[in-house]
């Protein structure tokens, strides 16, 4: 994927879902909306689309419905230092660059202007599942080590976090754990530290957190080890801190088409028929961010899922948040999902 700003130019009537594809392919976390003369009309980030989702704007609507129409811009004569200071002061990640005639001539990103930040947040990846729904594929290999493209699923997840500066990892392992430990070792060949939370029995998606050596100082990520995603981990962290949440659950919008006419009734009276409706839901994406104190709520030695922990946090009066995201995401649960991941890999991760 290129990082040329010209790759993220779109017209104002382009559907939002197509603009998202441009954003993902451009790998710059923004699209630039221009007219035929390349005058800037607005910009769209995933945050703009997220707000549109929450206001139930359809993804088939034109990008002009969600774009920011008054973005901060800089003249092409501004120095790198001036632009970097402006972005820092205004909390900006992208600044379009305009010439004297107001035409778009470039895009400055914070990533371009600053060095990568080292993130001390711990990352726990749940990699102990049986993967039984994948049949023979996992008879001799744990699901996290199945190759998607040229790399194991778990390695793709690890390197996705490394791209954002995370360096301390814990893999929760059970089924064929020795194969995972042999492949990743202590993490040194990836330039990070990897430790293992070894379950002697199945503890669920949260139970193995009791095996951590201590409570971390900062919020920690927990992610299922059978997911492929291009989610922005910095965005999750910023969202979590901004909303002062004790725990944040990442959610993904999915659509389900009912293949029948859905009937609405009032007792025995027929009051409506909706033919083959499409229902929209936000589903648990298997990615979480937890404050350290929430770990004290997880009971030791018993099967305990992340959904149990979120209910406990809510019941105890803690603040929980849902982070809707739009980047690529696939839960590899069944054989068809695995085959889809193999088809998607060259487009999404190379």
Account of the protein in words:
With 350 residues, this protein is an alpha/beta fold. It has 2 domains: 5-113, CBS-domain; 123-349, Spore Coat Polysaccharide Biosynthesis Protein SpsA, Chain A, CATH 3.90.550.10. It is built from 10 helices and 19 strands. It has helices at residues 16-26, 46-54, 80-90, 110-113, 153-162, 177-184, 204-207, 233-242, 306-315, 335-349, and strands at 9-10, 31-34, 40-44, 74-75, 94-98, 104-109, 123-126, 147-148, 151-152, 168-173, 193-198, 220-224, 227-229, 247-257, 261-266, 269-275, 278-290, 320-325, 329-331. The strands form 6 sheets. It has a 7-stranded mixed sheet with strand order 11-10-7-12-17-14-18, with helices on both faces. Strand 2 (31-34) and strand 3 (40-44) form a beta hairpin.
């Amino acid at each position: 994927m290129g990082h040329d700003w010209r790759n993220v130019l779109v017209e104002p009537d382009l559907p939002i879902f197509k603009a998202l594809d441009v954003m993902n392919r451009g790998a710059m976390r923004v699209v630039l909306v221009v007219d035929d003369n390349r005058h800037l009309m607005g910009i769209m980030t995933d945050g703009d689309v997220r707000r549109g989702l929450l206001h139930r704007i359809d993804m088939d609507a034109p990008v002009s419905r969600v774009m920011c129409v008054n973005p901060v811009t800089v003249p092409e004569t501004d120095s790198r230092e001036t632009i970097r200071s402006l972005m820092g002061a205004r909390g900006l990640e992208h600044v379009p660059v305009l010439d004297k005639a107001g035409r778009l001539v470039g895009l400055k990103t914070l990533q371009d202007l600053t060095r990568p930040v080292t993130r001390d947040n711990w990352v726990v990846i749940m990699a102990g599942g049986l993967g039984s729904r994948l049949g023979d594929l996992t008879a001799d290999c744990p699901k996290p080590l199945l190759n998607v493209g040229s790399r194991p699923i778990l390695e793709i997840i690890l390197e996705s976090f490394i791209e954002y500066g995370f360096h301390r990892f814990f893999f929760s392992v059970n089924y064929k754990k020795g194969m995972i430990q042999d492949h990743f070792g202590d993490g040194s060949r990836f330039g990070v530290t990897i430790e293992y939370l070894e379950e002697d029995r199945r503890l669920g998606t949260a139970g193995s957190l009791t095996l951590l050596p201590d409570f971390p100082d900062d919020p920690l990520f927990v992610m299922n080890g059978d997911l492929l995603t291009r989610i922005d981990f910095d965005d999750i962290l910023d969202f979590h801190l901004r909303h002062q949440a004790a725990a944040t659950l990442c959610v993904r919008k999915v659509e389900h088409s009912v293949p029948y006419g859905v009937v609405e009734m009032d007792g025995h009276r027929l009051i409506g028929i909706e033919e083959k409706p499409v229902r929209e839901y936000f589903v648990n994406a298997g990615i979480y961010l937890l404050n350290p104190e929430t770990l004290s709520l997880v009971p030791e030695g018993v099967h305990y899922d992340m959904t149990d922990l979120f209910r406990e946090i809510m019941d105890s009066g803690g603040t929980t948040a849902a982070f809707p995201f739009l980047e690529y995401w696939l839960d590899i649960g069944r054989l068809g999902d695995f085959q889809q991941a193999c088809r998607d890999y060259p487009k999404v991760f190379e």
